[in-house]
Design brief:
Layout lengths: L1 E6 L3 H16 L3 E2 L8 E7 L3 H12 L2 E4 L2 E4 L4 E7 L2 H7 L5 E2 L8 H7 L30 E5 L1 E2 L10 H4 L4 E2 L2 H13 L4 E5 L12 E2 L5 E2 L4 H9 L6 E5 L8 H9 L6 E3 L7 H7 L5 H14 L4 E8 L6 H14 L3 E6 L17 H24 L5 E8 L15 E6 L4 E5 L10 E5 L3 E2 L2 E2 L1
Parallel strand pairs: 1-2, 1-3, 3-6, 6-7, 8-11, 11-14, 15-16, 16-17
Antiparallel strand pairs: 4-5, 9-10, 12-13, 18-19, 18-21, 19-20, 22-23
Helix pairs in contact: 7-8, 11-12
């Protein structure tokens, strides 16, 4: 039996899919690159944005699955749905698939497949049902260089536009001991980039102590302390994390980032809007002044920091004057990257009770305005790297296609800086290898990367 996982979602969905793959291969399934080759198709979806939900509904309304340029009939294939699924979407899709399961039930997926999916399975190689939670299932990592490590799931913030608390539940942090042991194994296997995941990593609190050795016990481990513990592990690797909430980002965390050798100079800090009225409607818990003060602290402590953000345009009631405040903040902050979303109403959220009164055309116009500003600020930021020699982690080479990563184009190697900049590298000697840290000189910059 062969399987294919199709992902419509964030990095957490991608990380969850690596654990789904581990369970499936444990019971005899083999991965395939194309959906049409699969006996079993797993759709790992996300109800956070309507655009992602529409893509899932599109699979069934057209009786086809789109995968890049290929289209296949889903008839005669087993279809499983999981991920961040709203109750309304679950109800609408339950008659179109063979099985819908909560990702937290991943340890009992083989049992669900057999009982509810009607799928005959070979005996398991290890008992996933004995795992304490699905995070304890060893993932099948899709990259030879970078590894996602979830440290918590869920969210207690209840931002007015967001369904995460409803589809992921309340905040639950993994024990620090479990996380650090997983990271140790990854370092031992040669992984060079560790990426800690959580809906709001700043709220991380280990439910248990960390036994450093027989004589030392570390208590009350928050996110800053967790970063410090991982940073102090031996080995050459980079440490990243996503996502941070501005109201929970502490001075302690900034200090740890500033003095740590392995924590990268990159921070994703979603602002969502540059207007205080809209921020209050969104239930974000901070003002524009608070956010600017925080950015100032970060840049004062970490000079080379690269900062990205999220912005929603067209939130209910957002006037043109209020949108101009977001434009003003963007010009001031000079972000390295912005992920812009046009507001879409999500069932169960507080904002869903408000009138979606900004028309689609106006949302698109506002998005285009922000993108033009981003292009200018990102280019200006990237030009600062020209003629500088910096360290880069090689992620792809022209001859590297292992793990389904594909080949780098036009004989360039592809790498990433510590500040999360993509770099094209001409390897004149053909000596670069995936997973190596190398010193390179930057000769060219665009808004979206370096060369």
């Amino acid at each position: 039996m062969k399987y294919k996982i199709i992902i419509y979602g964030c990095q957490m969905n991608k990380s969850d899919s690596e654990r789904i793959a581990a369970v499936l291969e444990n019971i005899g399934y083999q991965p395939v690159n194309k959906p049409e080759q699969a006996d079993l198709i797993i759709v790992n979806m996300c109800s956070v944005r309507q655009s992602a939900v529409d893509r899932v509904y599109g699979l069934f309304s057209k009786s086809k699955i789109k995968n890049q340029k290929s289209k296949i009939q889903i008839k005669n294939k087993k279809i499983i749905l999981t991920g961040c699924i709203l109750p309304t979407d679950r109800k609408n899709l339950e008659n179109k698939v063979d099985l819908i399961f909560n990702i937290k039930d991943l340890p009992i997926l083989p049992k669900l497949l057999s009982e509810k999916g009607g799928i005959s399975l070979r005996p398991q190689l290890f008992s996933t049902s004995q795992c304490n939670n699905y995070f304890s299932i060893p993932p099948l990592l899709t990259s030879p260089v970078s590894a996602y490590v979830p440290i918590m799931t869920g969210c207690n913030n209840f931002c007015a536009y967001c369904v995460v608390p409803y589809v992921r539940g309340e905040e639950i942090s993994r024990p620090a001991q479990e996380i650090i042991e997983e990271v140790k194994k990854l370092i031992k296997k040669g992984y060079k980039e560790i990426i800690l995941l959580g809906q709001n990593v700043n709220r991380y609190r280990s439910p248990t102590n960390y036994e450093f050795n027989t004589n030392i016990r570390i208590t009350n481990i928050n996110f800053a302390k967790l970063l410090q513990l991982i940073n102090d592990l031996p080995g050459k690797f980079w440490l990243r994390f996503i996502t941070s909430h501005p109201k929970d980002l502490s001075d302690e965390l900034i200090e740890i980032m500033a003095k740590s050798e392995k924590i990268t100079e990159y921070l994703h800090l979603p602002v969502q809007s540059g207007d205080d009225v809209i921020l209050q409607k969104m239930n974000r818990g901070y003002t524009v002044k608070d956010y600017k003060k925080l950015i100032g602290k970060i840049r004062d402590k970490i000079r080379m920091i690269s900062i990205s953000t999220d912005i929603i345009v067209g939130f209910p009631g957002e006037t043109k004057k209020e949108f101009k405040q977001t434009v003003k903040l963007m010009k001031w902050a000079k972000f390295d990257m912005i992920y812009i979303a046009q507001y879409s109403p999500r069932p169960m959220t507080a904002a869903c009770q408000l009138k979606d009164d900004v028309i689609k055309k106006e949302k698109k116009r506002r998005e285009q305005i922000l993108n033009r500003i981003l292009e200018k600020t990102a280019l200006k930021n990237n030009k600062k790297y020209i003629n500088k020699t910096i360290e880069v982690l090689i992620e792809q080479t022209p001859h590297h296609c292992k793990f389904g990563m594909g080949q780098a184009k036009n004989d360039f190697c592809l790498g990433k800086t510590k500040t999360f900049k993509n770099v094209k590298i001409k390897d004149l000697k053909g000596s670069l290898r995936v997973g190596r840290f190398v010193k390179i000189k930057i000769i060219k910059a665009t808004p979206w990367g370096l060369e």
